Amino acid sequence: MTHNQFSGGQARNVVQAGSVGRIDLTVPAAPLPEPDPDARRLAGLVGGQWRAEAAARGLFGPLPLPVPWRTEHRLADHPELTGAPPDEVGTRTRPAEIAEMFLALPERRLVILGSAGSGKTSLAVLLLIELIDRLGPQDPVPVLVPLASWQPGKQRLREWFAERISKDYPTVPVARLLAERRLLPVLDGFDELPPELRADALRAINRDLTPGDPLVLTSRAEAYRRAAEGSRVLHASAAVHSRPIPAAGVTEALRHHAGPQHLARWQPVLDEIAAHPAGPLTRTLANPLFLGLAREAHTAPADLLRFPDRQSLTDHLLDRFVPALAPDAVRTLRDIAAHDEPDIAWWRLHWRVANLFTVSKWPWVSIFVATLSGLAVLYSYSPYAALVYCTVTITVCSLTLGLGSGGYEGLLRLKGRLNPVVHSTPGKIAALTPLLLGPLFALLLASTRTLGLMTPVSLVGTVSVQCSLSALLLLTIRRWARQSARSMSVEEQSSPAAALRAGRRRAVTMGTVVGSVSYAVLCVGLGGPQLGAALWCSLLPAALAVFGSEWGAYTITRLLLAAAGRIPLRYAAFLAEAHRLGLLRRVGSVYQFRHESLRERLAQQAP
């Protein structure tokens, strides 16, 4: 019998000649694909952030709330597109079961529906954590973002999503991961969009989706149903709808919360639930939000029996929650709820006073004042005129750029949500022009002092040197900042405090660069005994770079509102403490009220 042996190398065909008996063929397994290092790092950041947030919200308790989730075919797409059996009406209570259902969908698109406070966001967070725990080398990384800040008519979903994630995770190459389908958007709060935009938003989401793009969307059921009537449901999506917690589940949750030591105080409530399983108390506490409020904010549970209907009981629970946990913060939180959007972001605080500066005339007023001041310098050659010019220009430009547009960072973003002052290209040019007038007139002053006459060659040469030095310094500092940011912890890269520190670093860096370059150029131009004037003139452009930034706009607005008694002086620390107490929730680099119902109730009570 012939025995042939083949080992090593590669071959398309192997032929054995002679008497052929039993053949044993061993084929080595194909190597597993390598996971993308950036996707893996993002998964660590997202998973760490949301595990900490879920623990802060009490979602990892020993007895999770048994919220039933039922398949909703009426607001899902055709069964042949979703891949879900048309006759399935199963009820699931564990996030692992929802994750298995989601992963079995061909397109992996799921809409999470329910009433206000039914646990939609909590399920989205637990689903995200479950998916990250099961993440394979080629699986997309789920990232949860609130949808309230998206403007469908002005920005595509992909662009907004990439910009939003880049704000939360600045060291991650979001654009590349999104282009390679390594991200799974978890869009929270579709119902928080303005009602007149919801149908357009759903239409825009369907238009941007391509085959194979996964998506998770949460919404109140009625808002989603009306939007679908104006467009259509999410393409190839399945849907789940929350059901009320059964009376037995409510009783069990309250018993475990009370413990043996306080069970007697809760016994009247337990008896009322047992006696009237369809009564207003039971129906109210069957909602996870109000069950949580009752457990956390009530030291006298018998007070819950005083209310005859659901509306009065829900109002009582919402009104009692903030004073029970932070009585000194009620006025400030009401003011924030009335004036801020659902996302409480430090870089948007300037909107509280922006109506004084965002009218269309202010950029042109800034240009006009800067031009007159510059002409005064050129005609008089007076150092006093130069001082007046610099002071007036810096003041007007800082207020215009900082309070009017929220900082030059927003102006330099060609894509994204822009403030009213820079919606159009002329508006961008008008708002950016004051930034250019300061260095230009400073150079004119320096050259006329030295040469007695400004020549085109000297002007072009000086401007070129200044721009080259500025670009070199900025690129060097930017590279150093990116390298140092990669070693930051999860908490530092995905928190409002980290975003505030990053904004302050950007402002100080820009101020240092502008001030240093301006001083160097002015020293060359003025020379000799005029170095003191050069120092003074370089400090003012540096101040413009600092206070005309997002962090500068936040700082000016914070001081103004604190002086008026509208917010605490230590605003960031106040928000962090409210989050620690459970009044706010953290979503990446922004805060939100614990629930939209709480924000709406506080806004109604604001003076």
Describe the protein in words.
There is one protein chain. The protein is α/β, with parallel strands linked by helices. The chain has 3 domains: 37-242, P-loop containing nucleotide triphosphate hydrolases (Rossmann fold, 3-Layer(aba) Sandwich); 247-325, no CATH class; 356-476 and 510-559, no CATH class. It has 24 helices and 9 strands. It has helices spanning 37-56, 79-82, 95-103, 120-133, 157-168, 174-179, 198-208, 221-230, 247-275, 280-285, 288-297, 310-325, 330-339, 361-380, 383-405, 408-412, 425-451, 456-485, 490-493, 496-526, 531-547, 550-563, 571-580, 596-604; strands at 69-71, 91-92, 109-114, 141-146, 183-188, 215-220, 238-242, 584-587, 590-593. The strands form 2 sheets. It has a 7-stranded mixed beta sheet, sandwiched between helices. Strand 8 (584-587) and strand 9 form a beta hairpin. Helix 11 (288-297) packs across helix 12 (310-325), helix 15 (383-405) packs parallel to helix 21 (531-547) and helix 18 runs antiparallel to helix 20 (496-526). The chain is globular. Residues 356-364, 411-439, 446-455 and 484-492 have low confidence and may be disordered.
Layout of helices and strands:
Blueprint (H helix, E strand, L loop, with lengths): L36 H20 L12 E3 L7 H4 L8 E2 L2 H9 L5 E6 L5 H14 L7 E6 L10 H12 L5 H6 L3 E6 L9 H11 L6 E6 H10 L7 E5 L4 H29 L4 H6 L2 H10 L12 H16 L4 H10 L21 H20 L2 H23 L2 H5 L12 H27 L4 H30 L4 H4 L2 H31 L4 H17 L2 H14 L7 H10 L3 E4 L2 E4 L2 H9 L3
Parallel strand pairs: 3-6, 3-7, 4-5, 5-6
Antiparallel strand pairs: 1-2, 1-7, 8-9
Helix pairs in contact: 1-4, 3-4, 7-8, 11-12, 13-24, 14-15, 14-17, 15-17, 15-21, 15-22, 17-18, 17-20, 17-21, 18-20, 20-21
